């Protein structure tokens, strides 16, 4: 692990899928020496994503095996074959097979080890980023340092949403959000009664995982009919060029771009293999489906009493909200940058990015040395910006511009 006290050429903020993939690309392009690169993340490399998969019981990826943190598309398949783990590549109706979560993470760890990424990891949270034109100052919980280029890859930055009726009880003993870092599904009693709120992949996956203990009562509160989709948007969007022109026809960071993304994303959908598990759970009466919307929730002696719009009342030991992430521009760091910096933001605080390089544009219209990868780059890359394939596309664009910038 690296200390946060020496300067760097490139600093990646966030060591998730996007941050790790960017590091892999930069090192494999031999654009810099490992000592000139650092990845700052308080959770450890890929740890936050691994934890989210654990928290919702996701043990198979939705995306195909060619989407992983390495650069060679077939690296994960070859990794599986070399270790006799082909059975961890699961079949799918559309496209290539999908890896299990354990195969995906073992392969990612193997890539990180081969490039010694742990040695350039700084265990700290970034609290501020200041653009000094020819350098960027990175303020962290472990001190301050300077870098020539900063790549921001912080995912949703820790923001998630509770339904309005749950805000007063949020994070109390009986009420949790699935993305709260402290939420631990393994700590729920084997005979508990559990309510899960939400109708998308996370809620359904969590319900089927928790329902594995026959002594539990699992109620899924899903107010709308389930929608089944293999992926999170049309595969056309995975090709980026050709379709992103539709986005780029609108002004950067505009409401019009946001609307194109919202329309293109199949948010709240469930892939067929997860839906089949839900159907089995319902048939075996391991899961009870409550179609009505919760109106009120009250704590009562360590339990929570919920009342639905159709007057159904239930007393539960635990209520878990799987109601999605918040806006990617509303995490702590983005909010701070919006208030304090000279970088341009647009609709709902979206960063104004250059469509060719993902560089964040300054108030004076010049590109800053800060580039963005991940969900916050969706106005440029479209509905798959947050996904593994989005990291690959962002990596191509960022490495291309850095190649010319570093050589100049
Ligand atoms: C359960 C789940 C399953 C998914 N399955 C798939 C799938 O099958 N296929 C697919 O393509 N996509 C999938 N996705 C979507 C997407 O690929 C993942 O969300 C992916 O983890 C996004 O990577 P990221 O690096 O942008 O964000 P994250 O994985 O969230 O990583 C961001 C990192 O930034 C760090 N960070 C945040 N703030 C700071 C700060 N201030 N300073 C320093 N570090 C900071 C965090 O600690 C974190 O490690 C899934 C998402 C979820 C939640």
From TrEMBL:
Domain of life, per the record? Archaea
Under InterPro entries, the record lists: FAD/NAD-bd_sf (IPR036188), HpyO/CreE_NAD-binding (IPR038732)
The cross-references to SUPFAM superfamilies, in alphabetical order and at most eight, read: FAD/NAD(P)-binding domain
Q: Which residues form the FAD-dependent urate hydroxylase HpyO/Asp monooxygenase CreE-like FAD/NAD(P)-binding domain?
A: 12-156
Q: Which Pfam families match?
A: NAD_binding_9
Q: What is this protein called?
A: Pyridine nucleotide-disulfide oxidoreductase
